[in-house]
Amino acid sequence: MALIDVCPVDELQPGSMKLVPVGPLTVGVYNCNGEYFAIEDRCSHDDGPLCEGEWDRDTCVVVCPRHGSNFDIRSGVPLTLPAFEPVDTFAVVVEDGYVKVDVS
Ligand code: FES
Predict the structure, then answer these.
(1) Residue 94 C-alpha to ligand 1 middle, in angstroms?
(2) Which domain holds residue 16?
(3) Minimum CA distance residue for ligand 1 atom 3
(4) DSSP 39-81
(5) What are the CA-CA distances from residue 63 to residues 7, 45, 72 (Å)?
(6) What's 56's domain CATH number?
(7) 33 CA to centre of own chain
(8) Which atom of ligand 1 is nearest to the CA of 64?
(9) What pLDDT band is residue 80 in, cutting at 50, 70 and 90?
(10) Is the whole model's pTM more than 0.85, yes or no?
């Protein structure tokens, strides 16, 4: 398991998101309704900056800012076209008061 520090728990309140560089990737770490999720900040349709899109705090759905595909933040699965392949997801853990993402 390769854990990358995201931030102290207090800095990722419900309804917030942080972008974290992970090697060549950028990962968006979300707190949606008190649960943590992490997805790659790269749309599976045409590499759009997915995590810069608006997201619904109730349904945990993010909208790609490039062509508007909706993705389920919890699973990475696209819900609307033009994207049809999922984006990568990563496990998130809380350890020693820090939110950490598992990129192994
Ligand atoms: S790049 Fe995201 S929908 Fe096209």
Answers:
(1) 31
(2) 3-102
(3) 67
(4) EESS-TTT---GGGS-EETTTTEEE-TTT--EEETTT--B-SS
(5) 24, 12, 9
(6) 2.102.10.10
(7) 14
(8) 2
(9) very high
(10) yes
